[in-house]
Amino acid sequence: MILKTDYEITLEARRVDGSDFFCGLTFPVGDSSASLILGGWGGSLCGISSLDGEDASHNDTRTFQRFENGVWYKVRMRVTSDRLQAWVDKKQIVDVKITGKKIDVREEIAASKPLGIASFQTTAEIRDIHLTPISGSTTAPKR
């Protein structure tokens, strides 16, 4: 059984070679799914795809972060009934209320639903994946 809300996914990811997203983490959000994109659209764009039909490059979750090839990054994705939050290492990169938003994935990533990891034009490595149920609190647990 896959959790649909009130859970956290942690993993480590790195881009080995290439210049686009090395971690496209697709995860369930209620009866739909969304994707956390790290290093997209040329290597530095991060965010959630898709919110209200807009992918990570066109919605309020869009941020930019430099990623070095060969470096392991700790990723944490937190899903509650009203919020999506994500961290890379200790830096929070996503904190968005999802109440009333249409949530889905881009067509190209639909094969990853409801839970999967993809990369694009990139060789990537993923390790140490954990899915943990949490309480409905929107505050980050101490780690």
Spell out the key features of this protein:
143 residues, mainly beta, Jelly Rolls, five-stranded antiparallel beta sheet, 10 strands, globular, disordered C terminus
What would your notes on this structure say?
This protein has a single domain, classed as Jelly Rolls. 0% of the residues lie in helices and 49% in strands. The strands form two sheets. Strands 8-7-6-1-10 form a five-stranded antiparallel β-sheet, with no helix packed on it. Strands 5-4-3-2-9 form a five-stranded antiparallel β-sheet, with no helix packed on it. A hairpin with a 4-residue loop joins strand 3 and strand 4. The C terminus is likely disordered.
